[in-house]
Design goal:
- The structure holds two protein chains of two kinds.
- Chain A has three helices and no strands.
- Chain A is mainly α.
- Chain A has a single domain (about 5-90), classed as Helix Hairpins.
- Chain B is an all-alpha fold.
- Chain B has seven helices and no strands.
- Chain B has helices at about 5-25, 30-50, 55-75, 80-85, 90-110, 125-135, 140-160.
- Chain B is extended and about 80 Å long.
- The chains are: A mainly alpha, B mainly alpha.
- Chains A and B meet through helix 1, helix 2 and helix 3 of A and helix 1, helix 2, helix 3, helix 5 and helix 6 of B.
Chain lengths: ~100, ~180
């Protein structure tokens, strides 16, 4: 249990989230990838709070704020996806091309 | 750091990593949601191992209990057969794999440099100091985020409200006959 081991887990979660965003075509799958990336950032914050003494309080506060923002982001994204589904009968993001120039 | 801590850390880290791999590689969207659920629980266990009990508990309550339920609701509401498994093309797999591998190599090479600043002796402040900090030094972010939550609440309710088409409206007689 060192700082590097936690940061490596964070990096791995970030990579998984990035891959998830780039290969999914289902809008909800992309939302899950975003959640994974936010959690990777959070894990880095808390690990740095634990191992860097000057960052002990700020790291946890950042993490808490990110959790709240992620909850709000998920709610709004879900509302948009459901609206899109109601209007277009699909959740495939490749079909959301009405604004294409 | 005792041996038990290391074993526990290895188990939790392995579970979290496997969950994240499942999120990427499973084809079924429902299974993807379940994998994400296990990953989030694993991350909260990592917070507990780091000694950040309050953040870990918040993660369990807000993420696992709130956000994931919301996402699973979304999955259930849109789960028609053709959307449960949407496949990616091999080109997309190749691009994502190349991007991921390259970025992970770079990160894994640069991250150990931070280790020289790390110290073991720091103890994380628990709930009390966090609460005091939120109401004194970090009052402005705290208020901003509460306002943000209010805006999100109103916005989500507005976006997801049931819309009535003109044909669905009940017919209202223009003039009421008075008796």
């Amino acid at each position: 249990m060192t700082l590097t081991s936690f940061l490596l887990i964070g990096a791995f979660l970030f990579i998984c989230g990035l891959a998830c965003i780039s290969i999914r075509r289902n809008a909800l799958g992309i939302l899950m990838g975003v959640e994974l990336i936010l959690n990777a950032a959070n894990l880095n914050f808390v690990a740095c709070a634990r191992y860097l003494p000057n960052f002990a309080l700020e790291g946890q506060i950042f993490a808490l704020i990110v959790i709240v923002l992620a909850a709000g982001e998920a709610a709004i994204a879900l509302a948009i996806i459901l609206n899109f589904y109601n209007n277009h009968n699909t959740v495939d993001v490749d079909r959301a091309d009405e604004l294409k120039g | 750091m005792s041996v038990l801590d290391e074993i526990l850390f290895a188990i939790v880290a392995l579970g979290t990593g496997l969950g994240a791999v499942g999120v990427v590689f499973t084809r079924n969207i429902v299974r993807q949601a379940v994998c994400l659920l296990f990953t989030l629980i694993g991350i909260s266990m990592l917070y507990f191992l780091l000694g950040a009990e309050f953040v870990g508990a918040t993660q369990l309550i807000v993420y696992v209990g709130g956000t994931m339920v919301l996402v699973i609701f979304g999955v259930m509401l849109t789960a028609r057969q053709e959307f449960v498994t949407i496949r990616a093309t091999p080109v997309e797999w190749f691009t994502a794999g190349l991007l991921g591998l390259g970025l992970f190599t770079i990160l894994a090479k640069t991250l150990p440099a931070l280790e020289s600043n790390a110290s073991e002796k720091g103890q994380l402040p628990s709930t009390g100091p966090i609460g005091v900090a939120f109401l004194t030094k970090y009052l402005l972010p705290f208020e901003a985020i509460s306002l943000h939550l209010l805006v999100v609440l109103i916005g989500a309710a507005y976006l997801a409200r049931a819309k009535k088409r003109p044909s669905d409206l009940p017919k209202i007689p223009l003039e009421k006959e008075e008796k």
